[in-house]
Design goal:
Radius of gyration: 21 Å
Order of helices and strands: HHHHHHHHHHHHHHHHHHH
CATH topology of the largest domain: Growth Hormone, Chain: A
Shape: globular
Largest sheet: none
Number of domains: 2
Number of strands: 0
Distance between the termini: 25 Å
CATH superfamily of the largest domain: MFS general substrate transporter like domains
CATH architecture of the largest domain: Up-down Bundle
Number of helices: 19
Helix content: over 70%
Structural class: mainly alpha
């Protein structure tokens, strides 16, 4: 979605762009985003340990992940505004500081609210850095090579889901979940220093009035939806219904205001284009299911098969490595065959794995779950 928002912009190579060594800048920004994704996926294996440490239920502790993803998504929705209003350096420095502050809060957390606050603050890092990485590529790379370059950059970011569960499981098994944050802190500080001297600006800024009302409505709708889905497990159906109604009302008001608003957030006119709509919806549902499964499976093998936190992380490693290292290939496919082939191929492979796990369930064992994943 972030790529689609900016593909219409003119992409040219200028002497300034060449002198700025843009791929070095992309690498720095991608590594910052890598740290954010690494800590997010690392936490998926720590839920049993966090439940014991803070005496909270699974439905509560899952907010460490779902709250993080929700906050990151909301920040990403402002990427179009951020690109036009702030410089690349300002965005990167802000994201790095958010990660560092969140790291310190999480590493020293004495209560679950403090841990959750740290995770929500850290989410701003991924929310700012991921669109920033793509925007820099769009500013300096010829259109014919966009897929390849984005694929190469995504290798850095997508290595994090490959390493995250294994890293989190190993750290939790041999030390403490707090070390996840202490170990990432020095690298974040190093990237902050490097980024302050290497990141350049490729476009001019414009002062725009941000649409806080629509942003607030969208945020309230997503939070209500998340809470409603989470509450289903407790079978408090009246609460679930009330939250879903709040979500629907907020979205209705948001859509109504979007027709006449003169303030800047993002445009909904792109959804009128069938090519975008029918590629975006499958991608959205696929990512929704993929993130949910990555959250579920490490805890599933620990609770059902009695596996350790380390094994819970390792089951996601082969699939994540395959996904991460395949990004340049997928980008090449996008450049040469368009979006249909990679989208259908990805959906098909994902569906096969999900059907295998749904049909066989506990009979698959840890090895079977790993292969299906």
């Amino acid at each position: 979605m972030i790529v689609s928002n900016f593909l219409k912009e003119a992409i040219t190579l200028t002497p300034t762009h060449k002198q700025a060594k843009p791929m070095l800048v992309v690498a720095i920004v991608a590594l910052m985003s890598f740290l954010g994704v690494l800590t997010e996926t690392s936490m998926n294996t720590t839920f049993p340990a966090l439940m014991k440490a803070f005496h909270v239920s699974l439905s509560t502790v899952q907010w460490v992940t779902s709250g993080y993803l929700l906050a990151a998504a909301l920040v990403m929705l402002t990427s179009a505004y951020m690109k036009r209003r702030f410089t690349n350096r300002q965005l990167f420095m802000s994201s790095a500081m958010l990660f560092i502050i969140g790291d310190l809060l999480c590493a020293t957390a004495q209560s679950f609210p403090q841990l959750l606050a740290g995770r929500l603050i850290q989410a701003g890092c991924v929310g700012l850095c991921t669109p920033l990485m793509v925007n820099i590529i769009l500013d300096v790379v010829p259109r014919a090579k966009l897929g390849l370059y984005i694929g190469i950059a995504n290798v850095i970011v997508l290595i994090a889901p490959a390493l995250g569960p294994t890293f989190g499981g190993a750290v939790t098994a041999f030390a403490s979940w707090r070390m996840i944050f202490w170990l990432t802190l020095p690298l974040a500080l190093l990237l902050l220093i490097l980024g302050s001297g290497q990141i350049h600006q490729y476009s001019t800024q414009t002062r725009l009035a941000f649409d806080w009302v629509r942003f607030g409505l969208l945020g309230a709708a997503l939070v209500a939806l998340n809470l409603g889905l989470t509450t289903i497990s407790s079978r408090h159906w009246l609460v679930v219904a009330a939250l879903l109604i709040v979500c629907a009302l907020c979205m209705a008001v948001f859509l109504r205001l979007s027709r006449t608003s003169t303030r800047f957030l993002f445009s909904l006119t792109v959804f009128k284009q069938p090519a975008f709509l029918f590629s975006f919806l499958p991608y959205l549902t696929l990512q929704f299911a993929n993130v949910g499964i990555n959250f579920l499976l490490p805890n599933y093998v620990q609770e059902v098969f009695g596996a350790s936190a380390l094994i819970g992380g390792l089951i996601l490693l082969p699939g994540s490595v395959f996904n991460g290292l395949g990004q340049p290939v997928y980008g090449w496919m996008l450049d040469h065959f368009g979006g249909r082939l990679p989208l259908l191929l990805g959906d098909g492979l994902f569906t096969i794995g999900v059907l295998a796990m749904a049909a066989l369930g506990p009979a698959m064992g840890v090895l079977g779950v790993t292969i299906a994943t």
